[in-house]
Specification:
Shape: globular
Largest sheet: 3 strands, antiparallel
Number of strands: 3
Number of domains: 1
Strand order of the largest sheet: 1-2-3
Structural class: mainly alpha
Helix content: 40-55%
Number of helices: 9
CATH class: Mainly Alpha
CATH topology: hpI Integrase, Chain A
Mean pLDDT: 84
CATH architecture: Orthogonal Bundle
Strand content: 5-15%
Length: about 220
């Protein structure tokens, strides 16, 4: 309304370039061995806390602030939709579809979504605080030095990169900035199958034996 006197008829922030600094990867991702250690610390953790931590990891390390804002109405069978406002000043949040592999779907079911917010301790009236989820991840019995919850997200991307999941699919799974006119305006494909395959690969890697500490035997001369 303040711009009305100046005859401004459009949102001056709509053409602002996205702030890609928010999409830069963490410089200290969890290693493959640390990712497996973290997974095994939460894999059988009982109760709501364990379910939330498994859901966060097995959906690809989604941004915690966006995940805890998941609304029950945005759960559609074996997917759910988050709304990504990162790097979009003056524009509405972008819908971001996240597939649910069976283990993640089970974790979400254990959260007992009801009311407005799916991840909640008061029947969906308010959502779990992002700081609470981060604290729970840190408090899990993993013993990882210098642990921070943001290292999970970058650890997921690094682990998937090691399995040759393309940077494009990793970006779409974690909702990094989508660049280019073609990608933003003309590519209407949802990439659900590719994102789902990436998440299945993630689970296989998390459940794989930790071979980092295996010392190869010398061949007989």
């Amino acid at each position: 309304m303040k711009f009305k006197a100046y005859n401004v008829r459009f949102n001056p922030g709509a053409d602002t370039a996205p702030d890609e600094s928010a999409n830069r990867p963490d410089k200290h991702p969890l290693s493959a061995a640390e990712m497996r250690t973290y997974w095994h610390a939460i894999k059988d953790m009982a109760g709501f806390r364990g379910a939330v931590l498994r859901l966060h990891l097995l959906t690809g390390g989604q941004r915690i602030e966006q995940l805890v804002n998941l609304r029950t109405a945005d759960i559609q069978g074996d997917t759910f939709t988050l709304y990504d406002g990162k790097g979009r000043p003056g524009k509405p949040p972008r819908p971001h579809s996240v597939p649910l592999i069976p283990f993640a779907a089970a974790a979400l079911l254990q959260c007992r979504p009801q009311g407005e917010f799916a991840i909640s301790t008061d029947g969906g009236e308010t959502h779990l605080a992002n700081t609470t989820l981060s604290a729970w991840a840190k408090q899990a019995p993993h013993g990882i030095a210098d642990f921070q919850a943001k290292r999970i997200r970058s650890g997921v991307e690094t682990l998937l990169a090691s399995a040759r999941i393309s940077s494009d699919i990793r970006g779409r799974l974690q909702s990094h900035g989508i660049s280019g006119v073609q990608a933003r305006h003309y590519d209407a494909y949802d990439y659900d199958a590719e994102k789902r395959q990436a998440l299945e690969t993630l689970l296989r890697l998390l459940d794989a034996p930790d071979v980092d500490n295996v010392v190869p035997m010398r061949a007989h001369v």
